């Protein structure tokens, strides 16, 4: 019965990764015109993998979230960036299926819309950065006749290795093999114990009892 | 409702992997609880089920609701999330007494052979015993609660998604431990007497109160991460912090004090001694009022007995309807391929066969069985030929093997790469026309299903892949077949034809050569044939004499077919990724080697030479090292077939990539096809809908999980084959090791392929068209 605790610990260890909250860290938060604009990105931005960029637009005075603005993202590539394979130097890609879509020329101005991420108060988009370096990120917000722009730098670095992100999937094999090996060892040990006990039970000394 | 409130309330996200895991967990629990409820309803009343489901619902709300989406912006939302993870979900789940229902809900063989040795392992028993000791449980929860609420740790978790997940896992895991001594889920035994548990709860409440007091009465923000985020709903950082402290304090204390009071009353109650079920350490099992159902009486699931689907599949019209749908689709594909736009990604001939049909077929193979052959439209010309009265000849004896199909498959794989079939709608259309023609000519002139059994390359792929399918056509009760004198399943009768691929049901094993036509089901006068659940891959371990096939260990042609399909899975996917495509093109760019011989060399090496050298070599090496006496040919055949799960997984990973990244392509292609063919104008195609709703990482994870499952099943099958060939474990390991090394190398190749950029050949992606 106490095994249940262990069972749940193991279960917790193998629970699929929990849903990631939107937002990431605040990259910039500035008051411009009638808006308070906050830009969210992951804490580390890597090349060649989708990066979620979120923008929250609030009313400068009331701090109410503005949901009907037109938000555009302009990504300016650094001059001396280290290009990554084929997709280097062609501007970032948008959308969700970035892996390997390498032969397309992408727009550098991206229309960012709400509803793309989990947090529906944010304007979100996914971007794949093809090169490392300090990218310039310019967010333009327009609502009716009001317009504002916020700039920030976005350092993009080489990923530490995609295999590192995938370790839970790759660990399945060694863990399963190890568990199977223990299982086989335990079964053999159990069979041996039973065989020894049967042999002892059928020995002449016990039989005479 | 205001737009802001609407946006907040719709901010849900449930990770597909988590959703899948929870659904499986619920299904397993439900299956087990249903049986236990019948047998010992006193122990497993309905409220336990409700509690378990409620606990999982609380877990879902904590990690998938707007609470999660706003946890980075509002500390109060974050604290509600933690409250659910620590004080609601764990006790409810434990109240569901999940151990026995989950064990009973899993397949019995797996519990007995797989989990059984672990459950009785003294090391694990002692560890579990120590882990569920109240002192350990309480300490774990307190350390987790206090440690993660330190400002440095809390801020770090907010900045790193990985640490944030770890924080939640810690809270949930340690809370499960904490509530264990309180709930004492059946059939656990208590470590401490009942009177000590209210004190245990009160001690935890003191810790929680101190923590919440610090949070509530602090005059400055404790967590700097919340100082930088936008403030929502008119809150300030401090007011949000106070709200968070109160949320954890008041309801938290209630959660601790209510069970403490109940347990104290229970302890003081004079009837406690009579009610205590675990006083003697032996679980009390009270018989149910209903008669107990013998657990061993459960039969295997039979799809043909399912209410609607079963009737549909059994009816001849059901199969005809499926064939008609696919025939109409094929006609549309041919028409658009020949006369429509030659941009593959916008043509039905580029979209339906190469994105949908391949992906859906492999999914159906993995979750059910060979249903494509059941719905195959190429069989309709056979019926036409029979009506013309041309049939009757026997298939030439020299061709009664898989060699012709192997040659055709190799030709197809080569042609696919050489002529860019995925990118040539007209060629695709001609290929389908050719298929119809070949099926008509062969089946019109020859008896039975000669085309399916000996020629059809698609059929061979289906047959081999269906060796790991969970459904097979099989006799429900073997004893009924033993007494059958007519053998209508094979010979047919006045109303129904028998098996056209010559499979005699009592001696049929596995899905090889079975087209799921269900003619045998309709012909059986005893209604004794069903579509039964089987263990995927189990058929690869056994080696019985199979009807019309003999022993697979003696069929070199079938082993060669399997081996070619396995290596073709890797070669086909590798040919699509950039590094291999560049490597392939290099000699062509030098101009030294013409394209045709080079592609022939590439496929000859990948599909014939490499499999023979790698698998033949490793198997023979294992045979020498282990000194087993099993004939080399038999080992080669059996170990070649053992790789089928890995190969099928690779096919699935590859085809699912195309299906899932372009799943929205059908309707626009249909619109454009209808417009081009002047059938009907549906307006301008909206290609923007092609964007999939999941991340590339999720897809990559799914692909790797498929490969994991394929490799593990292949290794297991290989191990079982090795154990049957060698008497002891050591020589079995020696026999297996070189072959397993080759399987691991294939797996690593698959991972490498999935990690490479894969150009969307012949497919239209959102980013291209925006």
Topology summary:
The complex is a heterodimer of chains A (209) and B (770).
Chain A: H1 3-14, E1 25-32, E2 35-41, E3 45-46, E4 51-59, E5 70-76, E6 93-94, E7 109-114, E8 123-128, E9 133-143, E10 146-157, H2 162-165, H3 167-201, H4 204-207
Chain B: H1 3-9, H2 16-39, H3 46-64, H4 66-69, H5 75-95, H6 99-105, H7 108-119, H8 122-131, H9 134-148, H10 151-159, H11 161-183, H12 196-217, H13 225-228, H14 237-268, H15 272-275, H16 309-314, H17 316-339, H18 348-367, H19 371-374, H20 380-388, H21 403-418, H22 425-445, H23 450-455, H24 457-465, E1 471-475, H25 478-482, H26 488-491, H27 519-523, E2 529-533, H28 538-541, H29 556-574, H30 578-590, H31 595-626, H32 632-642, H33 644-661, H34 666-676, H35 696-725, H36 729-755, H37 766-769
Antiparallel strand pairs in B: 1-2
Helix pairs in contact in B: 2-3, 2-6, 3-5, 5-11, 5-14, 9-11, 9-12, 10-11, 12-14, 17-18, 17-22, 18-22, 18-33, 18-34, 20-22, 21-29, 21-31, 29-31, 29-32, 29-33, 31-32, 31-36, 33-35, 33-36, 35-36
Describe this protein's structure.
The complex is a heterodimer of chains A (209) and B (770). By secondary structure, chain A is of the alpha+beta class. Chain A contains 4 helices and 10 strands, in the order H-E-E-E-E-E-E-E-E-E-E-H-H-H. In chain A, strands 1, 2, 3, 4, 5, 6, 7, 8, 9 and 10 form a 10-stranded mixed sheet that branches. The longest helix of chain A has 35 residues, at 167-201. The two termini of chain A are 37 Å apart. The model of chain A is unreliable at 1-23 and 80-107 (pLDDT under 50). Chain B has 37 helices and 2 strands. Helix content of chain B is 66%, strand content 1%. Chain B has 770 residues and is mostly helical. Chain B has a two-stranded antiparallel ribbon with strand order 1-2. Classes of the chains: A alpha+beta (209), B mainly alpha (770). Chains A and B meet through helix 1, strand 1, strand 6, helix 2 and helix 3 of A and helix 1, helix 2, helix 4, helix 7 and helix 8 of B.
